[in-house]
Amino acid sequence: MDRSEAGGTPASFSIKPESDMLITSQDNRRVRQALSLNARKHRDTTGLYLVEGPNLIREALQQNVILHSLFFMSEDALPRMRIEELDAVRKIAEAGENPPEIRFLGRDIFQKIAQTQTPQGVLAIAEKSLYAEQDFFTPAGGNVLVLDRIQDPGNLGTLLRTAEAAGFSGAMLLKGCGDVYGPKAVRAAAGTLFRLPLLFPDTPQLAAGMLRINGKTIYAAAAGGNTPYYDCPFNEDAAIVIGNEGNGVSAEWLEAADCMLSIPMAGRAESLNAAL
């Protein structure tokens, strides 16, 4: 009787490692690289970041995101249902034109890299998808989200996810924003990082200049805004600026804006979370 008939791992199981694919030391070069990507400075200098979980990695593969390495947790630490799910991820990865290097890790090493209470069994080193200005602004136009010093990673990911759902063509993240490629932001974005073009201008002046040249009308969401959002004639070439959670939109954006948006609120609420 094979193991699938006995209720064990299916006969088609394919994430069991060859001996040369199993990493048992934290001093391994690949492990050290993955561990370093938990720090923003290394993500910034290498252009790489970590993606964890079968759903996100499957989405990354489907969107042709370049994955340098794919790490699976060794099978003895995984339930059968998760093994079958990870088996499917490996098959998708190996079928691609440029399959990532695949390695297997013990639970302790995997958990140190993933830094989550309940590891999902697979993580990847992914390459950031970088856009030049001419690629970010397409002839077809489209609305752009501008994030001005948004700090909270959950807010960053949620705002990008919302922009994609609303049909925006891309998002600008100004210097002073938190790291959108940090693990919490990657999870909150739920795959949007693989699909939505991002641009990272250094200053509001530079960003506003790009927007003007490309025909965008700049709307700044501000507590002192004089135009309710529902009275603004949004078109397909709007740039909507969302400011810092505590301090709002910077003075440079208030000066550059064509329209100052407000969100009228009933009751005694004084403000809304930036992600709303």
Overview of this protein structure:
- The protein is of the alpha/beta class.
- The chain folds into two domains: 19-127, Ribosomal protein L30/S12 (60s Ribosomal Protein L30, Chain: A); 133-262, Alpha/beta knot (3-Layer(aba) Sandwich).
- It has ten helices and twelve strands.
- The protein has helices at residues 29-36, 40-46, 54-62, 80-95, 107-114, 133-136, 153-165, 183-189, 204-213, 251-256; strands at 22-23, 48-52, 67-73, 101-105, 122-127, 144-147, 170-173, 198-199, 217-221, 227-228, 238-242, 259-262.
- The longest helix is centred in the N-terminal third of the chain and has 16 residues, at 80-95.
- The radius of gyration is 22 Å and the shape is elongated.
Distance between the termini: 56 Å
Shape: elongated
CATH class of the largest domain: Alpha Beta
List the secondary-structure elements in sequence, H or E.
EHHEHEHEHEHEHEHEHEEEHE
Main sheet specs: 7 strands, parallel
Radius of gyration: 22 Å
Helix segment count? 10
CATH superfamily of the largest domain: SPOUT methyltransferase, trefoil knot domain
User: What is the total tally of β strands?
Assistant: 12
> Strand portion, in percent?
15-25%
Q: Taking all residues together, what is the mean pLDDT?
A: 86
In which range does the helix fraction lie?
A: 25-40%
Instruction: State the secondary-structure class.
Output: alpha/beta
Number of domains: 2
CATH architectural arrangement of the largest domain: 3-Layer(aba) Sandwich
User: Can you tell me the residue ranges where pLDDT is under 50 for at least 5 consecutive residues?
Assistant: 1-13, 265-276
Named CATH topology of the largest domain: Alpha/beta knot
Write out the strand line-up for the largest beta sheet, numbering strands in chain order.
8-7-6-11-9-12-10
